[in-house]
Design goal:
mainly alpha; 2 strands; 50% helix; globular
Length: 70
Amino acid sequence: MINYNPLWETMNNRKITTYALIKKHGIPSSTINSLKHNKNIMMYTLERLCSILNCTADEVVKFEDDKKKT
């Protein structure tokens, strides 16, 4: 399962808002919505986010095991 919680922490640390991603960097609001709902994004978008935030992919997304533990 995809989880973008690291993105929000990285953005907070870098003092970059979703508004700045949309208005200053041209990230579509639909992409922000996908990120907020842990939906898939294009690798190109991940690359752009990493470039904008000056970070690595693991500071944007983490993959979690979606198997339920019993």
